[in-house]
């Protein structure tokens, strides 16, 4: 097999060619197909949240290594079939804050708008892996209902496009949303939470930059990079184009066992992010979603790791350690005990 880069293909073509077969992944990474097959669960190649990873992401994996930190993020291990107590299909119970299809209004000043359920890759730890997206997406007529809702809530000054991955949507669709939201006077900021450019850097193309440059609101992209190996030259180049277009770039990570559970790895990630013009924002504790328990760390491991991280970095490169809790009015910060006395 010729190891040819897919960088010259349009992102939609790269997405179509994403790897979904374990054998194909084994071949690409020169792994023994039997050794790989022995590790994964029987439904790995079928169903709603099966193996899916674009070549551009696989190109950043180390050949021949079953323990590669990028491979472990996408490999459907049989450990997913374990069902320890406390791990549930919907850990965040967002339905209670779902006034309209596609809209989650949980925190006072900002709403989450999920415009698509699709992602460029399937991350095995994802808390939305069991989410019924098809029942919860705004169609054309709901655009108006959403605008009415925003008009009626002047306390909302920021709309967050989420998903799935909002950059799975065609640029024409995104441009329409941007124009719609720009027209609400009290919306100051539009934020996109996306892992798409990490999976396929060529998603940042001229069509995207055109709507980015046309918005009246301040634009923030929150990337989702978990390991320094994900930040290659190809991605950094595209991030620079986004920055040149005036976008503020932040990053969030999820703390994941055997992937980034080391202060050195996380410190290197922060350093490399900053080199690329991205500020670390959040380090999330794993959401307790069914199928992801094997990524969890113990409270003691987390405390030790975070204290080491604090000692490795300037304060502005330390991501806030947070947890998402169903009933709280914000993310819950951890590792910063209030001792003002
Ligand atoms: C995380 C989240 C936000 C954004 O929170 P920030 O702390 O502003 O990043 C907004 N709404 C919901 C429902 C969220 O889960
Ligand atoms: S890209 Fe984000 S929403 Fe999609 S599977 Fe990965 S973590 Fe989940």
Explain what the structure shows:
This is L-lysine 2,3-aminomutase. The chain has 341 residues and is of the alpha/beta class. The protein folds into two domains: 11-81, no CATH class; 94-333, Aldolase class I (TIM Barrel), CATH 3.20.20. The chain is built from twelve helices and nine strands. The chain has helices at 11-16, 22-28, 33-39, 55-58, 71-74, 140-151, 171-182, 196-199, 206-214, 233-244, 263-275, 299-312, and strands at residues 103-107, 110-114, 158-162, 189-194, 218-224, 248-254, 279-284, 320-323, 332-333. The protein has a nine-stranded mixed sheet. A hairpin with an 8-residue loop joins β8 (320-323) and β9. The protein starts with 10 loop residues before the first helix and ends in an 8-residue tail after the last strand. Iron/sulfur cluster (SF4) is lined by residues 119, 122-123, 126, 128, 163-165, 195, 224.
What is the topological layout?
Elements: H1 11-16, H2 22-28, H3 33-39, H4 55-58, H5 71-74, E1 103-107, E2 110-114, H6 140-151, E3 158-162, H7 171-182, E4 189-194, H8 196-199, H9 206-214, E5 218-224, H10 233-244, E6 248-254, H11 263-275, E7 279-284, H12 299-312, E8 320-323, E9 332-333
Parallel strand pairs: 2-3, 3-4, 4-5, 5-6, 6-7, 7-8
Antiparallel strand pairs: 1-2, 8-9
Helix pairs in contact: 7-9, 11-12
Protein name: L-lysine 2,3-aminomutase
Pfam families: Radical_SAM
Domain Radical SAM core: 105-328
Shape: globular
Q: What is the overall pLDDT average?
A: 92
Annotated CATH homologous superfamily of the largest domain = Aldolase class I
| Computed CA radius of gyration, to the nearest angstrom | 20 Å
CATH architecture classification of the largest domain: Alpha-Beta Barrel
Query: Which structural class do the helices and strands define?
Result: alpha/beta
Q: How far is the N terminus from the C terminus?
A: 64 Å
């Amino acid at each position: 097999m010729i190891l040819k880069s897919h960088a010259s293909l349009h992102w939609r073509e790269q997405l179509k060619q994403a790897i979904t077969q374990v054998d194909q992944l084994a071949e690409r990474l020169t792994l023994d197909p039997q050794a790989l097959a022995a590790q994964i669960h029987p439904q790995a190649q079928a169903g709603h949240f099966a193996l899916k990873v674009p070549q551009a992401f696989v190109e950043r994996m180390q050949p021949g290594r079953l323990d590669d930190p990028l491979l472990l993020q996408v490999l459907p291990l049989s450990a997913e079939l374990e069902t320890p107590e406390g791990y549930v299909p919907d850990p965040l119970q967002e339905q209670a804050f779902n006034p309209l299809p596609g809209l989650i209004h949980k925190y006072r000043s900002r709403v989450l708008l999920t415009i698509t359920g699709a992602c460029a890759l399937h991350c095995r730890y994802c808390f939305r892996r069991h989410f019924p997206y098809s029942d919860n997406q705004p169609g054309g007529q709901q655009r108006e209902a959403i605008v009415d809702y925003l008009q009626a809530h002047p306390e909302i000054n920021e709309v967050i496009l989420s998903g799935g991955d909002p950059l799975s949507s065609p640029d024409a669709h995104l441009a329409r949303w941007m124009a719609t939201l720009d027209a609400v006077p009290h919306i100051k900021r539009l934020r996109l939470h996306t892992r798409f450019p990490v999976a396929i850097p060529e998603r940042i193309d001229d069509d995207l930059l055109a709507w980015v440059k046309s918005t009246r609101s301040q634009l923030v992209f929150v990337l989702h990079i978990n390991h320094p190996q994900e930040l290659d030259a190809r991605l950094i180049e595209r991030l620079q184009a986004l920055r040149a277009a005036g976008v503020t770039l932040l990053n969030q990570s999820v703390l994941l066992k055997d992937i980034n559970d080391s202060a050195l790895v996380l410190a290197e990630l922060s350093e490399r992010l900053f080199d690329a013009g991205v500020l670390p924002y959040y380090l999330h504790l794993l959401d307790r979603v069914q199928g992801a328990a094997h990524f969890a760390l113990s409270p003691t491991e987390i405390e030790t790791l975070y204290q080491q991280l604090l000692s490795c970095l300037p304060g502005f490169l330390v991501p806030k350690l947070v947890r998402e809790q169903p009933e709280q009015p914000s993310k819950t910060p951890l590792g910063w005990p209030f001792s003002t006395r």
